[in-house]
Amino acid sequence: MDPDLVAAVAAVAGGEKLNISRFCAEHGVSRTVFYKYLARFRKEGAAGFLRRSSAPRRRPTTTPPRVREAIVRARKQLAEEGRDNGAISIGWRLEELGVVPVPSRATIHRILVAEGHVVPQPRKRPRCRRRFEYAEPNGLWQIDGMEFYLAGGEKVCILQILDDHSRLDVGTYAATSENGEETWAALQQAFAGYGVPVKILTDNGLAFSARHRGGMAELERRLAATGVQAIASTPYHPQTCGKDERSHQTLRRWLAKQPPPATLEQLQQLLEQYRAMYNNRRHQGIGGHTPQQRYHATPKATPTKAARPPAGTTQRPVTSTGVVAFSNCSIVIGRRWAGHTATLHWQGDRVSIMINDTVVRTLTLNRSVRYQRLTPQLSTTS
């Protein structure tokens, strides 16, 4: 504040004569400003010279206090239910409750920050920019297992099967571990409820795939017989199965708010409740639709022909007894090849074994026995 202006205003207010027009011209102040401060000084005294806020007296677009309270209350309720309680989910909850107006996602986030419920974080650069989504339901399912501990401390496994297009949880099953038999049982139940998909994507767990280890897992063999193409992600790249990995987070958050199950049966009951909730709640990844709605919105993909069995090439050493170990089988090729390295070309259970440029044996693996004899054993009768 200009000291000369303060002195002049105080003098005029005290009754002194002053050429206000000349004073304003000499000090670069408009007569309007001079008379404004003169009126303030006469009314408020010295406080009339203090700078005042330029903020508007009314803010018509300000979120009403009742809506702000509803936002905070909805965030707390969603957290207690074990659901996502971010800005988008809060907005959907306000719609369900009939709150009007429903603020935008940015406004909800801003209110949560102002209320101290959210600490702003810098935006993270995505690790992977390549995304995929199959165009039809049942075009691809993803299956993966996650560890879970029962109330008594026993470690078990939860197998989750997700439809890639709709994010529908087609099966979530409690298992003793991530093993082939229970995985196949879980898939059979999913097939019975939703049909057979064209492809199934897994990671490289021992129960799911042996392709990157130069063989074929029992699950891959069964899927091929059913007409389903089994595909496996790149080793050490969990982003390929990212939809299932993200679904694990949602399931863990929900289970953390439920009574701890003591048995697999109790856990399975909780998983059925979770599936009913998950499949019928709005999903951010599919435009706010529910997985159930999106799964039934378009025709389902179906396998058009029998899936081609997995194939590959691998190398195995030949033991001193002339045996090659492959795909849980011991294949006899003869002692003359002991110490050599054999190259195996395989597709399904059909195997050709080469050493250097010589094909030493071609066979179809007999899965009923482990030891694959060089010549069939003749049956004898007494």
TrEMBL record:
Residues 298-314 have a biased composition (Low complexity). Residues 133-299 form the Integrase catalytic domain. PROSITE patterns: INTEGRASE. Gene3D superfamilies: Ribonuclease H-like superfamily/Ribonuclease H. SUPFAM superfamilies: Homeodomain-like, Ribonuclease H-like. GO terms for biological process: DNA integration. Residues 285-319 are annotated as: Disordered. This is Transposase InsO family protein. It comes from Saccharopolyspora hordei.
